[in-house]
Amino acid sequence: MRIPLLSLLMLVSTGCQPKSKSDKPEVAQKGQEDTLMETSLTADQLKGYETAYFASGCFWCVEAIFESVKGVKEVYSGYSGGTEKNPTYKEVSYGKTTHAEAVEVYYDPKIVSFAQLVQVFFGSHDPTSLNRQGPDRGAQYRSIAFYKDEAQKKIITDYIAQLEAENIYGRPIVTEVKKFDKFYRAEEYHQDYEKRNPNNTYIQNVSVPRLNRFKENFKSYLKKESH
């Protein structure tokens, strides 16, 4: 299957800056967090949607990108791709596990297809950068496209072959194509982090610019409120 290529703007600087050991993530102000929790879908509501899993750097940035895509109902930040059970943010972000920061995407396949989500994934980070996204370094920030069955695997590998055949990036793609096993949801303060912390300097200087670059190239994929 040939998937139409979108106009991709790939910059090394699209990754999130590393969180230093002294950083303490800001939490939502009272009232803002309550509103976010009220608008979240329940587990029963989410049962009606398909799921897809991706890793492409800091999950704060990746979550915000997928949440802007029409047909996507919910996105959670978490950890996947490794073998350790119940990893924590401190363990993963310090490179003490084999997991990567990842996202779980709930989507309506009648509105957005898995193939289109794969396009979003490749169009919103640098898949030629090994164990790094921008200034974020380490295997915990590696690029992974997860698949749940052979049909999804073919969609991913065919798209990679197409990107490389047309030399979109000018360098070999190093994205892992990995069978999905387990997703561990991150701590609550990481969920909707960008929305909860709009005044955070990290969000303003790194996450928002990355999101805006994505929006500029994928205008037809955006929810109306994301324009």
From TrEMBL:
Return the HAMAP family for the record: MsrA
Q: What PROSITE patterns does the annotation carry?
A: PROKAR_LIPOPROTEIN (PS51257)
Quote the Gene3D superfamilies the UniProt record gives.
Peptide methionine sulphoxide reductase MsrA (3.30.1060.10)
Q: Where is the Peptide methionine sulphoxide reductase MsrA domain?
A: 51-202
State what this protein does: Has an important function as a repair enzyme for proteins that have been inactivated by oxidation. Catalyzes the reversible oxidation-reduction of methionine sulfoxide in proteins to methionine.
Where does the signal sequence lie?
none
**Which keywords does the record carry?**
Oxidoreductase
The catalytic activity of this protein is classed by the Enzyme Commission as 1.8.4.11
- What start-end ranges are recorded for coiled-coil regions in this protein? none
Pfam families from the UniProt entry: PMSR
Q: What is this protein called?
A: Peptide methionine sulfoxide reductase MsrA
Active-site residues, record numbering mapped to chain: 58
**Enzyme's top EC category:** oxidoreductase
Per the record, the similarity remark reads:
Belongs to the MsrA Met sulfoxide reductase family.
Origin: domain of life: Bacteria
Q: Which reaction does it catalyse?
A: [thioredoxin]-disulfide + L-methionine + H2O = L-methionine (S)-S-oxide + [thioredoxin]-dithiol; L-methionyl-[protein] + [thioredoxin]-disulfide + H2O = L-methionyl-(S)-S-oxide-[protein] + [thioredoxin]-dithiol
